[in-house]
Amino acid sequence: MTESESALLPLEDGASAAGKRPRSRGGALSFAWQAGQGRRRGAACPRANARLAWRQVPAAQVAHTNFAYWSLWLPIQLDPNDPFPAGFRYNALARLPRDRELLTYTSSKPQAPRTLVRVPLGASAESLGVVIGPADPLPEAKELEVIEARALDTTRLSLARHLAKYYAASLGQTLELFIPKGFGKVRRAKPSETVQPPLPTPPPLSPEQAAALKLLRKNDVGLLHGVTASGKTEVYLRLIQETLQAGRSAIVLVPEISLTPQTSQRLEERFPGRIALWHSGLPEAQRIRTWRRMRSGQLPVVSGSRSAIFAPTPNLGLIVVDEEHDSSYKQASGVRYHARTVARELAQATGAKLVLSSATPSVESHAAAAEGGIALAELRDRVSGELPTVEIVDLRAELKGGNSSTISASLQP
């Protein structure tokens, strides 16, 4: 790549709801749209070094507008035959225009795509950005500062594009999911050589566990359905061990941050010196150091909540979604992704296995297994001991018999 100009995608949030004023980070670019013969002005947004053209439409058709990363929602179907600039997309309720998310900056040295950089916005503000590719030269393009070369691989960049389309978000929003906050504030630590201890000998498997492991080995996507204490964890620990022995990495998702230390402790006991703990509650410095160690392959097993699915693990070979039915895997703000859905897309893109584990599978996963879309491995018995005996007691009958307590006679001493 010989061009000195690179198109940059802003990562910082400049979104606002209709009628509210977005945050201004130095400089301003007036967004405008036409309604009938009247003209309305939008709020100030970061300077984009580009002009935005909007189609003239009757006022009655402009029912809703929303700024997000220098984009505008229009709830109308635009005519694809209209003479608009190249790159505009004409879909009802689609973010318009997507190509205007790109800002243009210059660099004294050629920059590779997917490089993480810091760029100026306006007079004094700045933002993180990801180099997408070369751009047409601009006479007043500003200089960029490189933070991390090739911060993303091609698979993650393609996944970010897919998520932007699937969840109706901007590419800047989805790329931000892959980049930890605080980059550029934490000094890069000197790389240290770590000697990883040998893996311990795993415990023996029950016949049911062995059958489930064999089935999951042969299938790219599988549902591990087992009762409580049936040994589901040991099955996917075996899969993780085989993945590491093959020179690949693994991601284990848990639904809640509170469960992450518990899971990580068990993984650390089984795979000492190889576990990365990852969730949104980590301090910035720790997050960035851990991110770089994951990216370098020093920590090949990642354990964390839903955001761990965006970990930069190289040569990914296995993704485990524990308690896959849990609603906590759904992000409630920003890009409203579902970690289970992202895991399926990432597994398909990287050729990794996907294991969904639960004692009470989601309706979607159970239906997919019942229809043969994914493999179903079942563990019906507990590893140690039998399931407790359950007795249903009609307290109305006991009340008639003289027991006025809320505790049944069988539980009373």
Describe the structure.
With 413 residues, this protein is an alpha/beta fold. The chain has nine helices and 14 strands. The strands form three sheets. The protein has a seven-stranded parallel sheet, sandwiched between helices. Strands 4-1-6-5-7 form a five-stranded antiparallel sheet. The protein has a two-stranded antiparallel sheet with strand order 2-3. The longest helix has 14 residues, at 232-245. The protein is elongated, with a radius of gyration of 26 Å. The N and C termini lie far apart (82 Å). Residues 1-80 and 82-100 have low confidence and may be disordered.
A few lines on this structure:
With 413 residues, the chain is an alpha/beta fold. It has helices at residues 154-166, 171-178, 207-217, 232-245, 260-270, 284-296, 339-350, 363-370, 395-400, and strands spanning 5-10, 29-35, 38-45, 103-106, 116-121, 125-134, 145-148, 221-226, 249-253, 275-278, 301-304, 316-322, 353-358, 375-379.
List keywords for this structure.
single chain; 413 residues; alpha/beta; 7-stranded parallel sheet; 5-stranded antiparallel sheet; 9 helices; elongated
Write the layout of secondary structure elements.
Layout: E1 5-10, E2 29-35, E3 38-45, E4 103-106, E5 116-121, E6 125-134, E7 145-148, H1 154-166, H2 171-178, H3 207-217, E8 221-226, H4 232-245, E9 249-253, H5 260-270, E10 275-278, H6 284-296, E11 301-304, E12 316-322, H7 339-350, E13 353-358, H8 363-370, E14 375-379, H9 395-400
Parallel strand pairs: 8-13, 8-14, 9-11, 9-12, 10-11, 12-13
Antiparallel strand pairs: 1-4, 1-6, 2-3, 5-6, 5-7
Helix pairs in contact: 1-2, 1-7, 3-4
